[in-house]
Amino acid sequence: MRPLDGIVVVSLEHAIAAPFCTRQLADLGARVIKIERPGVGDFARAYDERVRGMSSHFVWVNRSKQSLTLDLKQERARDVLSKLIARADVLVQNLAPGAADRLGLSAATLRPRQPRLIVCDISGYGADGPYRDKKAYDLLIQSEAGFLSVTGTPEDPAKAGCSIADIAAGMYAYTGILAALLQRQRTGEGSRIDVSMLEALTEWMSYPLYYAFEGASAPERSGAAHATIYPYGPFEAGDGKTVMLGLQNEREWAAFCADVLRQPALATDPRFAANARRHANRVALRALILDAFRTLTAAEV
Questions:
Q1: Structural domains of the chain, ranges and CATH numbers in brackets
Q2: What is the model's pTM?
Q3: Residues known to be catalytic
Q4: Contact, 219 vs 227, CB < 8 A?
């Protein structure tokens, strides 16, 4: 038996954010019924043809679900959807802004007659505010949340290689639904959950925001290295291969000096005796590390 066996989720979803959320629910045993438009279905089906003719994105976020095609412009299809929702525990949607309201699928419309229903709305910018009617895509949200300001090299920003804004929103929606199911067990009442991609990724940006607290300088883009921790990132070994280091505390630093660099005294060198000092003196420290690595293969490091 899985944790969500017996839970029914109806999802009007496309792209990544909502499908990623509901796939987590399906993996835990929920019956997820994915509603798609006639003809093309979820447009993520056409992103590529890498998985035996199917889209890699679509296969990734839609396993374990049932799919139903409904033309919601037709009254009969809307009746079918209403009957499905009447038997559902959760309704998830990431339709274009305003579409759910026009279809009568808002929490304000549904929950008075179905108080145990959990309604989760996922959008780019949330239900309130000046951007509520705007469509959003992952790259736009990565830019607007400030993610590109700390990702890439000093010369060029870079987006993440996967859809992190969609993933962030999907994960917050997923955990919100789990919390709402627990709350319903205690109170008998459903909930309305509003998740925005921008809010989700802005939460992930909290460390850079606090780092720049009260007007301090923001962390710089540092490629595969870290903006504030050192040594952290790629270093070349003597055989030409790259080793990734990630030393985050004094115990690891002392062990690295003794066991890898064979220079235990470096651990207490005043220039490197704390992370802030190692980062401030990273040019000198990098030279010492690369000098020690010249006689070592990547495997030996």
A1: 8-204 (3.40.50.10540), 232-293 (3.30.1540.10)
A2: 0.90
A3: 226
A4: yes
